[in-house]
């Protein structure tokens, strides 16, 4: 004897079953989206680490070698002080450009999982409206 059909709950059970299946599919989609965004975030973080090491290493080497070369070249001339300040200013500008690139990469890394958060927020709003 089928009590569900006797009590007329077949439609109710079918709706619940459909809702559970739809919820499972939606959860699977959200997990897949989070996985894809995590892969993208890892790629950005690797790139950020490589860029940071590269900027730090190149800054040290470039500042030492080029500054030394310019100072040696102008050592016995009256423009020695001017050249020293120009060297310092030039490297300061290059350092600023590298720092700008680094900061922009950090800001991009800060927007991780934006699509997943937006989808989950929309799902939550939909659930609240149905309640």
Characterise the protein shown here:
There is one protein chain. The protein is mainly α. It has one domain (30-130). The protein contains 4 helices and no strands. It has helices at 3-7, 10-73, 80-109, 114-130. α2 runs antiparallel to α3 (80-109). The chain is rod-shaped, with a radius of gyration of 30 Å. The two termini are 34 Å apart. The mean pLDDT is 83.
Write a compact overview of the structure shown.
The chain is an all-alpha fold.
| Helix/strand structural class | mainly alpha
Helix content: over 70%
How many discrete structural domains?
Answer: 1
Using only C-alpha atoms, the radius of gyration works out to: 30 Å
Number of strands: 0
Distance between the termini: 34 Å
Number of helices: 4
Q: Tell me the major beta sheet.
A: none
| Element-level helix/strand string | HHHH
Strand content: under 5%
Shape: rod-shaped
Mean pLDDT: 83
Give start-end ranges of low-pLDDT stretches. Answer: none
Question: Can you lay out the helices and strands and say which pair or pack?
Answer:
Blueprint: H1 3-7, H2 10-73, H3 80-109, H4 114-130
Helix pairs in contact: 2-3, 2-4
Key structural traits:
131 residues; single chain; mainly alpha; 4 helices; rod-shaped; 0% strand
């Amino acid at each position: 004897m089928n009590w569900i059909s006797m009590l007329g709950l077949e439609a109710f059970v079918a709706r619940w079953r459909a809702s559970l299946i739809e919820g499972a599919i939606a959860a699977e989609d959200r997990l897949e989206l989070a996985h894809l965004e995590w892969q993208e975030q890892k790629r950005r973080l690797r790139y950020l680490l490589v860029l940071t090491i590269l900027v730090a290493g190149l800054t040290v080497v470039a500042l030492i070698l080029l500054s030394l070369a310019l100072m040696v070249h102008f050592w016995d001339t009256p423009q020695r002080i001017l050249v020293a300040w120009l060297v310092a200013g030039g490297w300061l500008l290059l350092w600023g450009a590298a720092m700008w690139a680094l900061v922009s990469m950090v800001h991009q890394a800060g927007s991780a999982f934006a699509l997943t958060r937006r989808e989950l927020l929309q799902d939550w709003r939909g659930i609240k409206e149905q309640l």
